[in-house]
Amino acid sequence: MSSYQLKQVNFQKQHSPLLAFSRNVTSQNGEDGILEYIFKKIPTDNQKYFVEFGAWDGKYLSNCFNLAKNQDWNGIFIEGNTEKFKDLQANVGDLAKVKCINTFVDFSGSTRLETILRSNGCPKNFDLLSIDVDGVDYHLWEDLDFFKPKVVVIEFNPSIPNDVIFIQARDLKVNQGSSLLALILLGKERGYELVCSTSCNGIFVLKEYYSLFGITNNHITVMCSPKCDGRIFHGFDSTVYVSGMPRLIWSNVRLSDLDFQVLPASMRRFDDAQNS
Protein backbone atom coordinates (compact mmCIF):
# COMPACT_ATOMS: atom_id res chain seq x y z
CA MET A 1 0.00 0.00 0.00
CA SER A 2 1.31 3.45 -0.86
CA SER A 3 2.32 5.73 1.97
CA TYR A 4 -0.05 8.48 3.07
CA GLN A 5 -0.43 11.17 5.71
CA LEU A 6 -3.43 11.10 8.03
CA LYS A 7 -3.70 13.78 10.68
CA GLN A 8 -5.62 12.71 13.74
CA VAL A 9 -7.81 15.23 15.54
CA ASN A 10 -7.46 15.01 19.31
CA PHE A 11 -10.65 14.24 21.16
CA GLN A 12 -11.93 17.03 23.35
CA LYS A 13 -12.13 16.25 27.04
CA GLN A 14 -15.52 15.66 28.56
CA HIS A 15 -17.19 18.73 29.98
CA SER A 16 -20.02 17.05 31.90
CA PRO A 17 -20.07 19.33 34.95
CA LEU A 18 -21.18 16.53 37.24
CA LEU A 19 -17.96 14.62 36.58
CA ALA A 20 -16.44 16.90 39.22
CA PHE A 21 -18.33 14.83 41.80
CA SER A 22 -17.00 11.48 40.59
CA ARG A 23 -16.22 9.01 43.35
CA ASN A 24 -16.17 5.25 43.44
CA VAL A 25 -17.28 3.05 46.30
CA THR A 26 -18.18 0.11 44.08
CA SER A 27 -19.07 1.91 40.84
CA GLN A 28 -16.74 1.78 37.84
CA ASN A 29 -16.36 5.36 36.65
CA GLY A 30 -17.32 7.67 39.49
CA GLU A 31 -21.06 7.04 39.37
CA ASP A 32 -21.34 6.65 43.17
CA GLY A 33 -20.26 10.23 43.80
CA ILE A 34 -22.26 11.61 40.88
CA LEU A 35 -25.45 9.92 42.08
CA GLU A 36 -24.92 11.18 45.63
CA TYR A 37 -24.76 14.72 44.21
CA ILE A 38 -27.80 14.20 42.00
CA PHE A 39 -29.94 13.07 44.92
CA LYS A 40 -28.92 16.11 46.93
CA LYS A 41 -30.70 18.07 44.21
CA ILE A 42 -33.62 15.78 43.43
CA PRO A 43 -36.20 15.01 46.14
CA THR A 44 -36.57 11.33 47.02
CA ASP A 45 -39.95 11.76 48.76
CA ASN A 46 -38.52 9.85 51.73
CA GLN A 47 -38.70 6.57 49.81
CA LYS A 48 -35.11 6.38 48.44
CA TYR A 49 -35.83 3.46 46.12
CA PHE A 50 -33.59 1.90 43.45
CA VAL A 51 -33.79 -0.92 40.90
CA GLU A 52 -30.60 -2.41 39.44
CA PHE A 53 -30.18 -5.20 36.88
CA GLY A 54 -28.01 -7.13 35.87
CA ALA A 55 -26.80 -6.74 39.38
CA TRP A 56 -24.05 -9.39 39.09
CA ASP A 57 -22.96 -9.97 42.71
CA GLY A 58 -24.59 -6.73 43.90
CA LYS A 59 -21.22 -5.14 44.57
CA TYR A 60 -18.82 -5.44 41.63
CA LEU A 61 -19.13 -2.27 39.51
CA SER A 62 -22.53 -1.63 41.11
CA ASN A 63 -24.16 1.80 40.94
CA CYS A 64 -26.55 0.97 43.79
CA PHE A 65 -24.57 -1.01 46.38
CA ASN A 66 -23.37 2.14 48.12
CA LEU A 67 -26.94 3.43 48.38
CA ALA A 68 -28.22 0.13 49.77
CA LYS A 69 -25.37 -0.61 52.14
CA ASN A 70 -24.32 2.81 53.35
CA GLN A 71 -27.27 5.15 52.79
CA ASP A 72 -30.26 3.07 53.92
CA TRP A 73 -32.00 2.92 50.54
CA ASN A 74 -34.81 0.52 49.66
CA GLY A 75 -34.56 -1.35 46.43
CA ILE A 76 -34.38 -4.36 44.17
CA PHE A 77 -31.35 -6.15 42.76
CA ILE A 78 -32.13 -8.43 39.80
CA GLU A 79 -29.61 -10.99 38.57
CA GLY A 80 -30.20 -13.95 36.27
CA ASN A 81 -26.96 -15.89 36.67
CA THR A 82 -27.51 -18.51 39.38
CA GLU A 83 -23.94 -18.53 40.70
CA LYS A 84 -23.67 -14.75 40.78
CA PHE A 85 -27.05 -14.59 42.49
CA LYS A 86 -25.61 -16.60 45.38
CA ASP A 87 -22.86 -13.99 45.68
CA LEU A 88 -25.51 -11.26 45.48
CA GLN A 89 -27.37 -12.78 48.41
CA ALA A 90 -24.13 -13.05 50.37
CA ASN A 91 -23.29 -9.40 49.76
CA VAL A 92 -26.67 -7.75 50.37
CA GLY A 93 -29.01 -10.46 51.61
CA ASP A 94 -28.81 -9.21 55.19
CA LEU A 95 -30.18 -5.78 54.25
CA ALA A 96 -33.82 -5.70 55.33
CA LYS A 97 -34.84 -3.03 52.81
CA VAL A 98 -33.39 -4.82 49.76
CA LYS A 99 -34.96 -7.58 47.67
CA CYS A 100 -32.81 -9.92 45.58
CA ILE A 101 -34.50 -11.53 42.58
CA ASN A 102 -32.96 -14.36 40.56
CA THR A 103 -34.23 -13.95 37.01
CA PHE A 104 -33.22 -12.65 33.63
CA VAL A 105 -35.24 -9.68 32.41
CA ASP A 106 -37.10 -10.28 29.14
CA PHE A 107 -39.70 -8.51 27.01
CA SER A 108 -42.82 -10.49 27.85
CA GLY A 109 -44.53 -12.65 30.44
CA SER A 110 -43.47 -12.99 34.05
CA THR A 111 -39.88 -11.87 33.35
CA ARG A 112 -40.81 -8.57 31.72
CA LEU A 113 -39.35 -5.76 33.82
CA GLU A 114 -42.72 -4.12 34.41
CA THR A 115 -44.15 -7.42 35.64
CA ILE A 116 -41.23 -8.02 38.00
CA LEU A 117 -41.49 -4.53 39.48
CA ARG A 118 -45.28 -4.66 39.88
CA SER A 119 -45.18 -8.04 41.60
CA ASN A 120 -42.53 -6.85 44.04
CA GLY A 121 -44.19 -3.63 45.16
CA CYS A 122 -41.93 -1.17 43.40
CA PRO A 123 -43.23 2.44 43.58
CA LYS A 124 -44.36 3.90 40.26
CA ASN A 125 -42.12 6.96 40.54
CA PHE A 126 -39.12 5.33 42.17
CA ASP A 127 -35.85 7.20 42.35
CA LEU A 128 -33.15 5.33 40.44
CA LEU A 129 -33.03 2.74 37.67
CA SER A 130 -29.64 1.26 36.76
CA ILE A 131 -29.50 -0.83 33.56
CA ASP A 132 -26.38 -2.80 32.65
CA VAL A 133 -26.99 -5.96 30.65
CA ASP A 134 -24.29 -5.54 27.97
CA GLY A 135 -26.68 -5.55 25.05
CA VAL A 136 -30.39 -4.80 24.99
CA ASP A 137 -30.20 -1.96 27.53
CA TYR A 138 -31.89 0.43 25.06
CA HIS A 139 -34.81 -1.91 24.47
CA LEU A 140 -35.37 -2.60 28.16
CA TRP A 141 -35.64 1.12 28.88
CA GLU A 142 -37.88 1.58 25.85
CA ASP A 143 -40.10 -1.24 27.16
CA LEU A 144 -40.75 0.52 30.48
CA ASP A 145 -44.23 2.07 30.28
CA PHE A 146 -45.94 2.26 33.67
CA PHE A 147 -42.95 3.10 35.84
CA LYS A 148 -41.23 6.49 35.67
CA PRO A 149 -37.94 6.52 37.60
CA LYS A 150 -36.55 9.96 38.37
CA VAL A 151 -33.01 9.03 37.36
CA VAL A 152 -31.82 6.45 34.84
CA VAL A 153 -28.24 5.19 34.60
CA ILE A 154 -27.81 3.15 31.45
CA GLU A 155 -24.82 1.60 29.72
CA PHE A 156 -23.90 2.60 26.17
CA ASN A 157 -21.27 1.33 23.76
CA PRO A 158 -18.37 3.84 24.02
CA SER A 159 -16.75 2.66 20.79
CA ILE A 160 -19.57 4.23 18.75
CA PRO A 161 -18.94 7.82 17.57
CA ASN A 162 -21.12 10.58 18.98
CA ASP A 163 -22.88 11.27 15.69
CA VAL A 164 -24.02 7.68 15.07
CA ILE A 165 -27.48 6.41 15.98
CA PHE A 166 -26.94 2.68 16.53
CA ILE A 167 -29.49 0.43 18.20
CA GLN A 168 -28.59 -3.24 18.43
CA ALA A 169 -31.14 -5.93 17.64
CA ARG A 170 -33.93 -6.55 20.16
CA ASP A 171 -32.38 -9.90 20.96
CA LEU A 172 -31.12 -11.00 24.39
CA LYS A 173 -28.50 -13.22 22.73
CA VAL A 174 -26.84 -10.26 21.01
CA ASN A 175 -24.17 -8.32 22.93
CA GLN A 176 -23.38 -5.17 20.98
CA GLY A 177 -24.93 -2.31 22.93
CA SER A 178 -26.36 0.91 21.56
CA SER A 179 -24.92 4.36 21.02
CA LEU A 180 -25.25 7.20 23.50
CA LEU A 181 -26.94 9.32 20.82
CA ALA A 182 -29.64 6.66 20.41
CA LEU A 183 -30.21 6.69 24.18
CA ILE A 184 -30.36 10.49 24.27
CA LEU A 185 -33.07 10.49 21.60
CA LEU A 186 -34.98 7.75 23.42
CA GLY A 187 -34.63 9.68 26.66
CA LYS A 188 -36.08 12.83 25.10
CA GLU A 189 -39.04 10.82 23.79
CA ARG A 190 -39.66 9.58 27.32
CA GLY A 191 -39.20 12.96 29.02
CA TYR A 192 -35.57 12.73 30.17
CA GLU A 193 -32.45 14.85 29.72
CA LEU A 194 -28.81 13.81 29.88
CA VAL A 195 -27.01 15.35 32.86
CA CYS A 196 -23.77 13.36 32.80
CA SER A 197 -21.81 10.88 30.74
CA THR A 198 -19.14 8.71 32.29
CA SER A 199 -16.97 6.57 30.03
CA CYS A 200 -19.74 4.00 29.45
CA ASN A 201 -22.87 5.19 31.30
CA GLY A 202 -25.35 7.88 30.39
CA ILE A 203 -27.08 9.44 33.41
CA PHE A 204 -30.50 10.91 32.71
CA VAL A 205 -33.00 12.79 34.87
CA LEU A 206 -36.65 13.60 34.28
CA LYS A 207 -36.91 16.84 32.33
CA GLU A 208 -38.63 18.58 35.25
CA TYR A 209 -35.43 18.22 37.31
CA TYR A 210 -32.94 19.19 34.61
CA SER A 211 -32.82 22.88 35.54
CA LEU A 212 -31.66 21.99 39.06
CA PHE A 213 -28.19 21.22 37.75
CA GLY A 214 -27.36 24.50 36.01
CA ILE A 215 -26.16 22.76 32.86
CA THR A 216 -26.15 25.29 30.02
CA ASN A 217 -25.41 22.82 27.23
CA ASN A 218 -25.97 19.05 27.36
CA HIS A 219 -25.28 18.37 23.69
CA ILE A 220 -23.56 15.03 23.21
CA THR A 221 -20.37 16.62 21.83
CA VAL A 222 -20.03 18.60 25.06
CA MET A 223 -20.99 15.80 27.44
CA CYS A 224 -19.17 12.82 25.98
CA SER A 225 -15.80 11.86 24.55
CA PRO A 226 -16.08 8.35 23.06
CA LYS A 227 -13.30 5.85 23.65
CA CYS A 228 -12.68 5.87 19.92
CA ASP A 229 -14.08 7.84 17.01
CA GLY A 230 -13.85 5.37 14.16
CA ARG A 231 -14.21 6.51 10.57
CA ILE A 232 -13.87 4.39 7.45
CA PHE A 233 -13.50 5.98 4.02
CA HIS A 234 -11.92 5.16 0.67
CA GLY A 235 -9.81 6.89 -1.94
CA PHE A 236 -10.70 7.41 -5.59
CA ASP A 237 -8.80 4.18 -6.26
CA SER A 238 -11.04 2.21 -3.82
CA THR A 239 -8.31 1.87 -1.19
CA VAL A 240 -10.05 1.74 2.21
CA TYR A 241 -8.70 3.70 5.15
CA VAL A 242 -9.61 3.55 8.84
CA SER A 243 -9.17 6.47 11.23
CA GLY A 244 -9.74 6.84 14.96
CA MET A 245 -10.12 3.12 15.60
CA PRO A 246 -6.67 1.68 16.32
CA ARG A 247 -7.93 -1.43 18.11
CA LEU A 248 -10.98 -3.43 19.15
CA ILE A 249 -11.55 -2.20 22.69
CA TRP A 250 -12.76 -5.39 24.35
CA SER A 251 -10.59 -7.83 22.41
CA ASN A 252 -7.54 -5.55 22.47
CA VAL A 253 -6.78 -6.51 18.87
CA ARG A 254 -4.96 -3.87 16.85
CA LEU A 255 -6.49 -2.71 13.56
CA SER A 256 -4.89 -1.31 10.43
CA ASP A 257 -5.99 -0.32 6.93
CA LEU A 258 -4.98 -3.77 5.71
CA ASP A 259 -7.82 -5.32 7.73
CA PHE A 260 -10.43 -3.35 5.78
CA GLN A 261 -9.44 -3.80 2.13
CA VAL A 262 -12.33 -5.04 0.00
CA LEU A 263 -10.36 -5.30 -3.24
CA PRO A 264 -6.91 -6.82 -3.83
CA ALA A 265 -4.11 -4.35 -4.56
CA SER A 266 -4.21 -5.20 -8.28
CA MET A 267 -7.79 -3.93 -8.53
CA ARG A 268 -7.38 -0.75 -6.46
CA ARG A 269 -7.05 1.85 -9.17
CA PHE A 270 -8.82 4.92 -10.54
CA ASP A 271 -9.64 4.36 -14.21
CA ASP A 272 -10.16 8.04 -15.03
CA ALA A 273 -6.80 9.16 -13.64
CA GLN A 274 -4.98 11.65 -15.89
CA ASN A 275 -1.73 9.69 -15.72
CA SER A 276 -3.34 6.36 -16.60
CATH fold label of the largest domain: Rossmann fold
**Helix share of residues?**
10-25%
Q: Which CATH top level class of the largest domain fits?
A: Alpha Beta
Measured by DSSP, the beta-strand proportion falls in: 15-25%
The CATH architecture assignment of the largest domain turns out to be 3-Layer(aba) Sandwich
Distance N to C terminus: 18 Å
Q: Specify the biggest β-sheet.
A: 7 strands, mixed
Low-confidence stretches: none
General form: elongated
Task: Look at the helices and sheets and give the structural class.
Answer: alpha/beta
User: Could you state the order of secondary-structure elements as H and E?
Assistant: HEHEHEHEHEHEEHEEEE
The total of helices stands at 7
Number of strands: 11
> Using only CA atoms, what is the Rg?
22 Å
> Which strands sit side by side, in order, in the main sheet?
3-2-1-4-5-7-6
Q: What would you say this structure looks like, in words?
A:
With 276 residues, the chain is α/β, with parallel strands linked by helices. The chain folds into two domains: 207 residues, Vaccinia Virus protein VP39 (Rossmann fold); 37 residues, no CATH class. It has seven helices and eleven strands. The strands form three sheets. Strands 3-2-1-4-5-7-6 form a seven-stranded mixed sheet, with helices on both faces. A two-stranded antiparallel ribbon has the order 8-9. β1, α2 and β2 form a beta-alpha-beta unit. The chain is elongated, with a radius of gyration of 22 Å.
